[in-house]
Amino acid sequence: METATITLAHGAGGRASDELIRSVVLPALGGASDMTLCDAALISNPGERIAFTTDGFTVTPLFFPGGNIGRLAVFGTVNDLAMVGAVPRYLALSIIAEEGLPMESLRSVLREVGNAAREASVRIVTGDTKVVGSGAVDKLFLTTAGIGTVGGDVPLLSPDQACPGDVVLVSGTMGDHGVAVLSAREGLSFTPQITSDCAPLAHLAGVLLAAAPSLRCMRDPTRGGLASVLNEFARAADAGFEIQEDAVPVRREVAALSEILGLDPLYLANEGKLVAVVGPRDADRALSALRAHPLGLEARAIGTVNADHRGLVVMRTGIGTRRIVEYPTGELLPRIC
Amino acid sequence: MRYLAEFRQGGLVPGLVDAIARLARPIRIMEVCGGHTHAICRYGLAALLPPEVHLVHGPGCPVCIVPTATVANAVALTDRPEVVVACFGDIMRVPSPRGTLLSRARGTGRVHMVYSPLEALDLARVSPDRQVVFLAIGFETTAPSTAMVLRRAWKDAVSNFTVMSAHYLVPPALRALMRHPATRVDAFIAPGHVSAVIGLRAYDFLCADHGCPVVVSGFEPLDILHSVLMILEQFQRGEATVGNQYRRAVRYSGNETAMAAVSEVFAVADADWRGLGRIAASGLMPAPDYGAWDAAQRYPAPQSDAEDSAECRCGDVLRGIISPADCALFAAACTPENPFGPCMVSTEGTCAAYYRYRDV
Lengths: 337, 360
Known about the structure:
The complex is a heterodimer. By secondary structure, chain A is an alpha+beta fold. Chain A has 2 domains: 8-150, CATH 3.30.1330.10; 159-324, Phosphoribosyl-aminoimidazole Synthetase, Chain A, domain 2, CATH 3.90.650.10. Chain A has 8 helices and 13 strands. Chain A has a 7-stranded mixed sheet. In chain A, strands 1-6-4-5 form a 4-stranded mixed sheet, with helices on one face. Chain A starts with 14 loop residues before the first helix and ends in a 13-residue tail after the last strand. Residues 333-337 of chain A have low confidence and may be disordered. By secondary structure, chain B is an alpha/beta fold. Chain B folds into 3 domains: 5-60 and 171-244, HypD, alpha/beta domain 1 (Rossmann fold); 68-170 and 254-298, 3-Layer(aba) Sandwich (Rossmann fold); 314-356, no CATH class. Chain B has helices at residues 13-23, 34-42, 68-77, 101-108, 117-126, 143-155, 170-179, 192-198, 204-210, 221-237, 256-265, 295-298, 314-318, 342-345, 350-356; strands at 27-31, 53-57, 83-87, 111-113, 131-138, 161-168, 187-190, 214-216, 242-244, 266-273, 277-286. In chain B, the strands form 2 sheets. Chain B has a 6-stranded mixed sheet, with helices on both faces. The two termini of chain B are 30 Å apart. Chain A binds chain B through residues 186, 188, 246, 252, 255-256, 259, 262, 308-309, 312, 314, 317-324, 326, 329-331, and chain B through 1, 4, 8-10, 13, 41-45, 47-48, 90, 93, 102, 113, 115, 221-222, 335-337, 347, 355-360.
């Protein structure tokens, strides 16, 4: 019998657990409720390089404008695979639910997981469900692990490949997700409503790869934002990164709310954007390719790689001065992805 | 964005910088607002000024000047199961011997971040079985909103709401600063938002008693450059007056309604400033009529012996005597993750701004 909330029995491995998996989890994720469940999924060896990654998701609230923890859990892992040039294939999904979570919340999140997996063309082939006592987690935590395949013609994409003269691109506006989650969590109403940019990036990444053979690396600027990614790149490449403040695309309403709250969009999370470094000769072609894609309409070249201030990210401000863009320090916003 | 983009136009910078260079003279200009310090560092404005024009940073960050003992007392309140401490986000990270409010928020759930004092009062209304203590920080800018909320709590007889006041007044601190023998300041960039409340008259004594030109400034890079120019123009004319660069927000007489609310609800008292010590008539405590909403009366705290590190030179930084880089701890032992003193604690603190926005 199905209860209205999650109970510890749902995680105890008995009949209630089985019922939960068959009546709630499997249907949402595209499985048959009477399918035979094994201890592990068997997947055929594609004979290519394999990309493998995992990510945990603890966002509060579970639903926010433009997204929810279910979509984040799928796209977060799919995007990490895409950033190394992989085609995402399979996901594992681990659910940790708090006792007392309304069954309907779990259902709606899993529905979103299923939809997101279809959008991103990945299959969820294995998983696990645990229930912990009230207060041990905040409502619902999800962890996904993902496997993708990397075609033989895909170069090694890594920030240490970046060299002086290269161009830094972003695929769109910065900070949308961070502000959307913050507004939802703190009940800050704002017109027009700011929505999360959460989206699967594998197709966009594929387009960029095809357009720019000299692509050095890509990364999705999630927690820590653009500032973190550029600092990681600068250290890995042992090169200087210089960006133009005016070139970084930021939505008007995100800029306005950031001003009010004293936040810097450079440090805010994104869930549907990528930062890429390409060789100078491919820069224009790469930018046009990004802009021709629905997820890259607002792509911009924001700066260049140099040999001057190795390991540091420097910003040329709108008034012509310059300053270091530091790694984010401490906790900018508690728990946003 | 209106009111922002116009004041960040790079094209207008060279003209202003040239005008400043023409009038340049050896001068030390102190700004007394964390927002100004932040903007000066964020836009690297010092690099645009002639070498003889020095910007020095004053005690303008309301989080930084809250004594450690006040934070420790607020943290101690969370030991009481019935209490919820409501506070602004930026004070939550400030360390004290009893830990931070942020760590208590996670550990006990008895700390609630709010964006306005009204939210704290609303929290009290919906939690009749809890005692909500609002830790009220800020200068004259935020005191009026605390006053309005105390008025409302009084009117509606909300009995499970109190205010722990850490409201401070800027002009008495400037007076104390100018009387300190080590202070070397020739002119002031006065805080924009404080002045929107208290008006221009409150700074007259700086001109009359100390011969310092004062300009109330906005917060964008062009505002601050323009204010530097207005100060140099005063020197050129041999004047010392209170100028108003921030006309889009500040009126000569300030905001009388806000000031009336503050004088009704609060009484002026001597107050301890972190890094500066006790300053006469520089703090606001709930007036006797509002004693029932005064957290200091409902929860008398023991005298704290919380001391700041002896090597920490934040007191000298707050007085503009040294720059953060002159402190041996800066960026070595003392960083935003591990702050020794007040100026590194808050993102608006001078040391934190220097750390975050240093040039290559």
